[in-house]
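Why does this matter for the project? Reviewers at the last site visit asked to see concrete outputs rather than summary tables. In response, this paragraph embeds two records directly. Each consists of the residue sequence and, immediately after it, the corresponding structure tokens. Nothing has been edited or filtered.
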Amino acid sequence: MILLSSFLHLRPRRCGPLAGLGRGAGPAAGSRRALRVLVDMDGVLADFEGGFLKKFRARYPDKPYIALEDRRGFWVSEQYGRLGPELSEKAISIWESKNFFIELEPLPGAVEAVKQMANLADTDVFICTSPIKKYRYCPYEKYAWVEKHFGPEFLEQIVLTRDKTVVSADLLIDDRPDITGAELNPSWEHVLFTACHNKHLQLKPPSRRLQSWNDDWKAILDSKRLPPGRGT
């Protein structure tokens, strides 16, 4: 079930139900190539932080918790571990549980924006997400979540990988500030999607943010497009 994407060069399908997802006929000679966009899932499409906090408080009503406005740092378990040594494992148990990922709510505007993005001309969109190592439920539920909110045709557009640096693309929209891996110089530009845990970070130019799906994501895509005749 897990797609091994080491040194992966993604190839969009050009026929069938995906032909309407910005992937009709291939580019003609001399035209620009399709822009390839990777979109993270947890914290960008699915409300991981809100879903976690709701389930943590329900399962451990007598334990201290961290309000969303007080979240700092990408790793939830590390911040909870600083509240108490046993809270790190309790936090991890939440997202390792059955139905955690499938029951996450979409972030406001996420589904509509990505559907619009996928229907743009000369644009290939993939949901690029990292499954947790305890894989009993997570990979299946990520596929089921995409099918539920985007439809079965979008299942072809999922990339599951623990290392996003080896996936070839022009843009990666992701809420994790520090994305590292085997490839020291990934092909994509990382656009930081604003989340409760990273909103306090000051980015140095030329790094860019997408504040929310109400932000002008189309302008970010257009800034990466090559003019006709310069496609590769």
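We now turn to the second protein, recorded in exactly the same manner.
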Amino acid sequence: MTPAAANNSREVDFKLIRPKNYFANERTFINWLQLAVTMGGLGLALLNFGGNGVRVRISAFIFETGALMLIVYAYIMFWRRAQRLRRGERGTWDDRFVPVIVVIFFIFATAINFGLTFHKKEYIPPMNHLLATTMSWGRMQWRS
């Protein structure tokens, strides 16, 4: 084999990349992004509707940090798999560890959220103290 023929055999013709593989890579990327948006939405919901305490901010920060890390991971994996497709590499395309890590992270974050919420001796749901009213024997009392 001549050196020119060897150089030509290393180049990948982009017409040979099967579209179903490329679109499967995009679908996987979009699915990871959907999970990250869900995690971010949980964090924002905690931050906006969970009250004003430090405990709520810690829980929201944990969910938001996880969402950002998941977005970075999804982009890196999408880019690496696209490079492998362009080079025509063979091998395994699955990821066995990160889905397990994501499930463990969800369990960990939810446990921290519950632990921080119910850590007080008496749980008081968050509410605006100026507008919170109770009915006592037919008359309205304002809490401060």
